[in-house]
């Protein structure tokens, strides 16, 4: 359909539109017009992505400036979905185009997705590597400018990547023909043409209208520096599915060091010093050249670098980078190596402490200085200096130096940031562990730090996510189960969660629902620890044996690929026969980015409230910081955080208004008045007093009733009410215009501009007659 | 009131009551209550357990289909044991009947083999010994075929298209699983009033349904193969080994199949093999339990089986790496590798795989589910599967179906014969249909005069009370009579009640046959049963003969009622609808015949 918002013609790739989508697009347009940032929410399952893309593409195609869209999503499946959505939209736009000229314009619109080398590599050997880091390193060894130079000058002397070489033979700017390319499309294109998909995308980025990649590519300075540096300021930046964006922000500035890492870093330092000695005898000019450059403060800037050379970005935010020469005491290669050695030894010594230490970066630096005489300033340049040395030494297989790079990043971060960061040394994994397994956490407490540069750099940043809000068709039945059929209260509260009665009651909820619900049931647990122990307990209690009678059982495992295969099988089972149960974890791998709409999720069960583990020292530190810096109460944050995650989990089962299902919240805490207030409004709105405090058998009765009615109510035609046609949109628009006109007129009536008493005031005046 | 086969005083859940076995249900009524609180249809009973002879309490437990918990009854009367035996006898035959009808895949039952004792394991199972009494009557071949109407039907039709023998078996099953139908069959067909073919005429769907449910291939049972040992007195444990279990174990754990083929019979006898397997670490590793400590003391080192032990599959990465490509929309690994890991590690509760003992179990679940899925859907590599699946269009996963306009599809063009004629016809009639032209002013005047003095007319308006009162009266009466019926005790004696029921169902069946003969169903599946008009006429005549006897039968019943000292009008009232329907049929028949 085609309609107008103000003067902007919008092409929407469906015959109908939800009013929510229309409202969302209107809001989005206002943001773009005003060039500012905004947070937009939309009910889950009502087609947020398609609305967003539809409006922005219409906007881009209508105005001559052609602002670029940088669309960020959380997971690769979501990126691929957004690309597919965009591809569908553009096909629709092409088919709708009225003139040849317009059609040509639509066809020339370009959209690409970017992910790692690991996901895009088609080199037969390199692509087989399991770890992304290894793929990166091996790729670099085949494509870096120095290797290419050697290989081209003297063919056969070094291995080069044919796919990358072929890319070099093409004209820059036409590496990929215009159009929308999903990740799968780009891979296929690379295979067909014999070119490298990864670098094809990277090098086409300046020419595309829309680039879709993950949050990290913009928020994590190490990646953003290499990938997103050249984005122009007027680009529109969208963070979709952004309900957890604060976590990504914090992650991108936090770092962990462990014992094995320190050992590996130590070995790398030794290897580096050997290399330096070696090069001193073979090619001493190289080192001297580097030194001279460093003295002059002529560091190679990333822009001069070839995109194949970049390997480790600076961990600092752009504003915190120093434009100074590297300090004298680490300019010489051997001095820097000695410096690194000392630092690594210091951290190792600290890790031998057997009690927990929490300290600020300043106190850490003071102690470091007292013991090792390492100053803050050279430490700040640690990451940069290491980059330079690695480049000078022309090292191969950089993945072997990963730990050392991490230590250098740690050094740079700890020497740069004071406020909003904390160092925590945990010698033991858990409180009752006896074998030390120390971890040195450098943790960022303030999520606003990482996103600030993005806000400052781009004129329009849109943060958007789905909320669970009541849809006007109540096809979802939320129920709160607070006790089992035996009236024992159920809860995932730490003290009772392993109580056999609670475990059994949770189990009987699963059994009963697997009996009555068709197709798929998704169950979420508050943590992996709990899921794994409860699955074992259920098996011993014979509960799973009961479930096996009705459905297949699939469980999320630690391995991503293994879980993906289980997911695929789960879907197959939902498409055929009696369906299956999927057990997974809120905040886990599955809960983010995988949809369970329609038959893939006819019921979703939350076993317990997905609170974070409050004994976590990092969480405690973060809560304290939030309280001190932003006056957010701990309990308030924890409650909010648990509820947003619960809402996300159940929200994954919604798509479209005729989709239906059950949402079961199994924990007595969901029914408590103070917790109820924190629940999303829709629960409070839709859960009647009785439905918020159910026992299992009562809930089953209600669920059966609901399923019987929902199946008798084949989608009535909701056109005009919750589904709008173009006419409905126009009606709504004219109504709004009228309303606006009326208020305007009223204001005119009300105010004569003479400072007198207004009509309203006169009317309201309480005359005592 | 249904016939009671036997009754006894029995308590259930410590409440005293009366246990009754009627001809369709087992029911238990708490003392002082009118309605039975437990009512179990015959078909639901699945197994029966009794307390030992000479136990302090005489108990009986009945498990139901799909509910092993079932019901427990304790016989309380002084002659508890004899009463219990009576129930036991009756229920056993019911259950064995159920078993035979429900067991679609008759699996041989093997008497338990005591794994620790020296009873040899037998691979050839002894056949199931379900001690079942054949239900009375049903096994007798229908005798009716030879009687009166044998001439008008060639043979009992074979509906499912199979051979008559299997057809007969199907019919028998339908009758057994449906006691009421079985009773009717006994009354009418066995007694020779109507033929077998006539009886099934119009009930073909029952047989077809039965055939369909039988031909449906039963998949593998979903549960994990987890032979749980039963403890036997003397500290021994025993595990039942059935050929099915052996098959399942081999299927689930190929390593055991390998061990079997390596060692039996060269190194171990079959019996030794299983005996040692169930004591081995290998078996312990295969058990779907993490509480293996309980069985620890019986686990012994075993030089043969320990060779086959695999490392526990409890690493973060699975032992069996699978590098098949998953669909990108569910590809979680791609996200893990999308960017370098950043940030602090997750807290202890959120690190997957910390419960090492649970991991092999979880993997077993996923693999088991996958195996079941593949056994039902066929094992096709995922890539090929995706290509084969026609519904798997890239857009199908993201499209929102609601937003498509269902009416936007191109309609089906109506192809009409003689279109011109149709439109001409309409044109002809249109001038007639056109209304005479109206003069607006006239109409207006008319309306105005109509409205004049509406006020006074409104005051004259009176709503007759009579109708309202009548309606209310009707309703009250209705409620009263219903209350009346409910409050009245159903004191018609059993025998009479049964006769009434029989009379009613028989008359209904005759009526059904009659109308079927008069109006053969259209578009019905044309089986061999479809009769010629002549045959139908004979049949109708015969049925009318039966139907006209209904009055006599009812009269007889009324008389019996009087003899029993029961209000005859009640019986009459109860059977009035049947009489009415019979009269209807008779009048219809007599009116129709002269017409011909």
TrEMBL record, chain A:
InterPro entries: ATP-dep_Helicase_C, DinG/Rad3-like, DNA/RNA_helicase_DEAH_CS, HBB, Helic_SF1/SF2_ATP-bd_DinG/Rad3, Helicase-like_DEXD_c2, P-loop_NTPase, RAD3-like_helicase_DEAD. It catalyses: ATP + H2O = ADP + phosphate + H(+). Its main location: nucleus. Its cofactor is [4Fe-4S] cluster. GO terms for molecular function: 4 iron, 4 sulfur cluster binding; 5'-3' DNA helicase activity; ATP binding; damaged DNA binding; hydrolase activity, acting on acid anhydrides, in phosphorus-containing anhydrides; metal ion binding. GO terms for cellular component: nucleotide-excision repair factor 3 complex. It is found in: Nucleus. One of its GO terms (biological process) is nucleotide-excision repair. It holds the Pfam family DEAD_2. The keyword rRNA processing does not apply. Its EC number is 5.6.2.3. It comes from the Eukaryota. Residues 739-769 are annotated as: Disordered. The keyword Cell membrane does not apply. It is an enzyme of class 5 (isomerase). Belongs to the helicase family. RAD3/XPD subfamily. This is DNA 5'-3' helicase.
TrEMBL record, chain B:
Its main location: nucleus. GO terms for cellular component: transcription factor TFIIH core complex. Residues 233-285 form the BSD domain. It is found in: Nucleus. Residues 115-128 have a biased composition (Low complexity). Residues 98-164 are annotated as: Disordered. Keywords: Nucleus, Repeat, Transcription, Transcription regulation. PROSITE patterns: BSD. CDD domains: PH_TFIIH. It holds the Pfam family BSD. One of its GO terms (biological process) is nucleotide-excision repair. Belongs to the TFB1 family. This is BSD domain-containing protein. It comes from Hebeloma cylindrosporum.
């Amino acid at each position: 359909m085609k309609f107008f918002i103000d003067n902007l013609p919008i092409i929407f790739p469906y015959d109908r539109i939800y009013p929510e989508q229309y409202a969302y697009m209107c809001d989005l347009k206002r943001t773009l017009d005003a060039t500012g940032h905004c947070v937009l929410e939309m009910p889950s399952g009502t087609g947020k992505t398609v609305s967003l893309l539809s409006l922005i593409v219409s906007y881009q195609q209508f105005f001559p400036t052609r602002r670029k869209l940088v669309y960020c999503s959380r997971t690769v499946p979501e990126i691929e979905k957004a690309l597919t959505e965009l591809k569908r939209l553009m096909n629709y736009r092409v088919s709708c185009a009225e003139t040849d000229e317009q059609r040509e314009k639509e066809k020339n619109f370009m959209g690409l997705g970017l992910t790692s080398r690991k996901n895009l590599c088609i080199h037969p050997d390199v692509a087989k590597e399991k770890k992304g880091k290894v793929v990166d390193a091996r790729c670099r060894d085949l494509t870096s400018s120095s290797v290419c130079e050697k290989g081209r000058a003297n063919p056969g002397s070094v291995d080069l990547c044919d796919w990358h070489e072929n890319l070099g033979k093409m004209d820059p700017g036409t590496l990929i023909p215009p159009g929308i390319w999903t990740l799968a499309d780009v891979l296929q294109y690379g295979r067909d043409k014999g070119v490298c998909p990864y670098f094809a995308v990277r090098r086409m980025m300046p020419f595309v209208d829309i680039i879709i990649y993950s949050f990290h590519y913009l928020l994590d300075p190490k990646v953003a520096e290499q990938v997103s540096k050249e984005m122009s300021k007027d680009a529109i930046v969208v963070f979709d599915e952004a309900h957890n964006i604060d976590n990504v922000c914090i992650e991108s500035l936090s770092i962990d060091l462990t014992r094995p890492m320190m050992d590996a870093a130590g070995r790398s330092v030794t290897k580096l010093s050997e290399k330096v000695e070696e090069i001193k005898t073979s090619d001493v000019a190289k080192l001297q050249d580097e030194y001279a450059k460093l003295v002059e403060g002529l560091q190679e800037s990333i822009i001069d670098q070839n995109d194949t050379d970049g390997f480790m970005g600076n961990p600092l935010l752009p504003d915190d980078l120093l434009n100074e020469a590297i300090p004298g005491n680490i300019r010489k290669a051997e001095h820097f190596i000695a410096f690194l050695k000392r630092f690594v030894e210091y951290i190792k010594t600290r890790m031998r402490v057997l009690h927990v230490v929490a300290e600020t970066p300043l106190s850490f630096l003071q102690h470091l200085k007292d013991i090792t005489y390492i100053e803050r300033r050279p430490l700040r340049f640690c990451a940069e200096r290491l980059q330079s040395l690695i480049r000078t030494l022309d090292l191969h297989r950089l993945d072997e130096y990963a730990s050392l790079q991490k230590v250098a990043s740690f050094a740079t971060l700890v020497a740069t940031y004071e406020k909003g960061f904390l160092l925590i040394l945990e010698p033991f994994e858990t409180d009752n562990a006896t074998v030390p397994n120390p971890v040195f956490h450098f943790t960022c407490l303030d999520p606003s730090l990482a996103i600030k540069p993005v806000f400052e750099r781009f004129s329009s940043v849109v943060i958007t996510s789905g909320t669970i809000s009541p849809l006007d068709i109540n096809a979802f039945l939320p129920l709160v189960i607070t006790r089992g059929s035996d009236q024992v209260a159920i809860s995932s509260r730490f003290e009772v969660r392993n109580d056999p009665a609670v475990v059994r009651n949770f189990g009987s909820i699963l059994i009963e629902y697997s009996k009555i619900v068709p197709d798929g049931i998704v169950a979420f647990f508050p943590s992996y620890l709990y899921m794994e122990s409860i699955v074992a307990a259920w098996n011993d209690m014979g509960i799973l044996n009961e479930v096996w009678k009705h459905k297949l059982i699939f469980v999320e495992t630690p391995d991503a690929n293994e879980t993906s295969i289980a997911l695929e099988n789960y879907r197959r089972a939902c498409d055929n026969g009696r369906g299956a149960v999927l057990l997974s974890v809120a905040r886990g791998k599955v809960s983010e980015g995988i949809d369970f709409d329609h038959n893939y999720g006819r019921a979703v069960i939350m076993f317990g409230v997905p609170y974070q583990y409050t004994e976590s020292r990092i969480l405690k530190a973060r809560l304290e910081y939030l309280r001190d810096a932003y006056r957010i109460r701990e309990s308030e944050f924890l409650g909010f955080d648990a509820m947003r995650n619960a809402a996300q989990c159940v929200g994954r089962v919604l798509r479209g208004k005729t989709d239906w299902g059950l949402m079961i919240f199994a924990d007595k805490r969901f029914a408590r008045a103070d917790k109820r207030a924190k629940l999303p409004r829709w629960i409070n709105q839709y859960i009647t007093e009785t439905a918020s405090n159910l026992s299992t058998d009562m809930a089953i009765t209600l669920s059966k009733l609901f399923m019987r009615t929902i199946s008798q109510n084949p989608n009535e035609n909701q056109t005009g009410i919750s589904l709008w046609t173009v006419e409905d949109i126009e009606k709504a628009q004219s109504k709004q215009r009228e309303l606006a006109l009326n208020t305007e007129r009223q204001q005119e009536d009300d105010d004569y501009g003479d400072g007198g008493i207004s009509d309203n005031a006169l009317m309201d005046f309480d005359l005592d007659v | 009131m249904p016939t009671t086969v036997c009754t006894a005083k029995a308590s259930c859940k410590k409440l005293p009551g009366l246990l009754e076995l009627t001809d369709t249900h087992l029911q238990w009524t708490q003392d002082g209550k009118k309605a039975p609180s437990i009512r179990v249809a015959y078909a639901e009973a699945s197994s029966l357990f009794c307390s030992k002879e000479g136990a302090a309490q005489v108990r009986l437990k009945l498990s139901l289909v799909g509910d092993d918990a079932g019901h427990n009854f304790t016989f309380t009367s002084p002659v508890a044991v004899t009463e219990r035996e009576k129930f036991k006898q009756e229920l056993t035959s019911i259950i064995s009947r159920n078993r035979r009808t429900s067991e679609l895949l008759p699996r041989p039952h093997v008497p338990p083999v005591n794994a620790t004792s020296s009873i040899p394991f037998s691979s050839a199972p002894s056949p199931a010994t379900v001690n079942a009494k054949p239900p009375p009557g049903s096994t007798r071949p229908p005798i009716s075929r030879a009687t009166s109407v044998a001439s008008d039907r060639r043979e009992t039709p074979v509906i499912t298209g199979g051979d008559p023998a299997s057809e007969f078996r199907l019919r028998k099953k339908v009758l057994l699983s449906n006691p009421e139908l079985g009773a009717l069959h006994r009354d009418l067909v066995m007694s020779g009033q109507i033929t077998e073919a006539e009886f099934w005429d119009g009930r073909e769907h029952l047989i077809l349904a039965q055939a369909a449910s039988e031909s449906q291939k039963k998949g593998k049972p979903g549960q994990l193969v987890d032979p749980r040992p039963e403890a036997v007195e003397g500290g021994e444990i025993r595990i039942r080994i059935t050929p099915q279990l052996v098959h399942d174990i081999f299927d689930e754990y190929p390593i055991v199949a390998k061990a079997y083929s390596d060692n039996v019979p060269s190194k171990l006898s079959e019996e030794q093999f299983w005996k040692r397997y169930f004591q081995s670490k290998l078996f312990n590793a295969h058990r779907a339990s993490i509480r293996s400590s309980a069985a620890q003391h019986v686990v012994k080192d075993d030089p043969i089986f320990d060779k086959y032990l695999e490392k526990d599959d409890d690493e973060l990465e699975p032992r069996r790496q699978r590098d098949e490509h998953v669909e990108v929309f569910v590809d979680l690994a791609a996200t893990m590798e999308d960017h370098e890991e950043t940030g602090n590690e997750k807290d202890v509760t959120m690190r997957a795989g910390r419960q090492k003992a649970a991991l092999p179990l979880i993997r077993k679940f996923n693999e088991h589910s996958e195996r079941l899925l593949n056994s039902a859907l066929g094992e096709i590599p995922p890539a090929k599967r995706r290509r084969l699946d026609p519904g798997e269009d890239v857009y199908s996963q993201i499209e929102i179906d609601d937003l498509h306009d269902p009416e936007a599809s191109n309609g089906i063009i109506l192809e009409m014969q003689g279109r011109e004629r149709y439109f001409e016809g309409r044109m002809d009639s249109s001038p007639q249909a056109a209304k005479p032209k109206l003069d607006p002013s006239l109409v207006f005047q008319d309306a105005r005069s109509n409205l004049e003095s509406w006020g006074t007319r409104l005051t004259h308006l009176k709503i007759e009370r009579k109708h309202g009162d009548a309606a209310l009266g009707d309703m009250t009466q209705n409620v009263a009579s219903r209350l009346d019926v409910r409050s009245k005790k159903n004191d018609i004696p059993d025998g009479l009640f049964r006769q009434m029921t029989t009379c009613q169902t028989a008359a209904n069946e005759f009526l059904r046959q009659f109308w079927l003969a008069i109006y053969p169903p259209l578009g019905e599946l044309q089986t061999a049963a479809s009769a010629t008009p002549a045959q139908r006429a004979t049949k109708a005549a015969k049925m009318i003969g039966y139907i006209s006897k209904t009055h006599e039968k009812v009269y007889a019943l009324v008389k019996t009622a009087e003899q029993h000292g029961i209000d005859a009008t009640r019986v009459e009232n109860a059977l009035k609808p049947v009489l009415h329907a019979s009269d209807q049929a008779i009048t219809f028949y007599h009116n129709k015949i002269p017409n011909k």
